[in-house]
Write a structure and sequence with these properties.
Layout lengths: L4 H8 L17 H14 L11 E4 L2 H25 L2 H15 L2 E4 H11 L1 H4 L10 H22 L1 H10 L7 H14 L4 H11 L10 H27 L10 H23 L3 H13 L7 H6 L1 H7 L1
Parallel strand pairs: 1-2
Helix pairs in contact: 1-2, 2-3, 3-4, 7-8, 7-9, 11-12, 12-13
Length: 311
Amino acid sequence: MPFNSQQQAAIDHGCRDGALLVSAAAGSGKTTVMAQRVKRLLADPDLGIQADRLFVSTFTRAAAAELRGRIASLLNQELDQARTAGDPRRVAWLQKQRIYLQRAAIGTTDSYCIRLVQQNFALLDIAPDFEIADALQLERIQQQAVTAVVDRALTDDPDFVRLASLYGRSREEGSVARLCLALHQYLQGLEDPMEALDRFDRDWQPGVHLSLTPWGRALACHALPGVEDALRGMDRLAGQLPDIQALQPMAGVICRDRELMVRVKELVDRCAGEEDQEAWEALAAPVKKDRWPTLKKEEKAAHGPAATLLK
């Protein structure tokens, strides 16, 4: 098949020309280009690259089997051409490559890692008959490990005990264990987990106002949709005031609450967008002092239908 200029450039890219990144959409011919590139590297005896010295990684075992088959077919074609051309040196080289190809590391990354461990188990100080855990086994191992860590921390670490008290009344509830496991899984996706933990610790030092931390802005961003939803509900309720007689005695309270929620949204917007300590203090003041104003009990009792509607 004919290749476009970019595909041909990827095929012809030399081993000593530096790294090569190929980014292309599904169905654009990546596997074909890969097979052609590998064939070009293996078919030339002057390059001297043995097939079993390559590492070719794919996402699935099926893709690896297909790629290996394509490379073998291309080498067979090269071998037939070399025989037709009467080139004994090339024929001998390609015959060896077909044997080397059977041992080539063409597969998924995890299968290659397993192969490395199997070949070097003694250096790693593990049993040669090790097994790969499946999803259920991994989940059980994780749960056992996190339970052991939490139990030890609850016994030896007063700071951890205070943390656990924020997430559940007892360790049986598992809240703090789930928190630890979720944090571990999140950190495993970062380039440097320990550096990330140090950065989180710096951002949450005692005495640093919440407005000056990324946690404060994240909290405000998380709260904003709920505040906006509450404000929309109040707008709908205020719009019904002229039409619903049962709401008339509470019109003042409803309008006052709506004004308060407008102010809350303004403050949350400020907290989410910048380091605004004044906005945080204004937002927290009603919570620290008392509840926000609500209907009095006697008003609710006197206007049962209206209270039911508000619920």
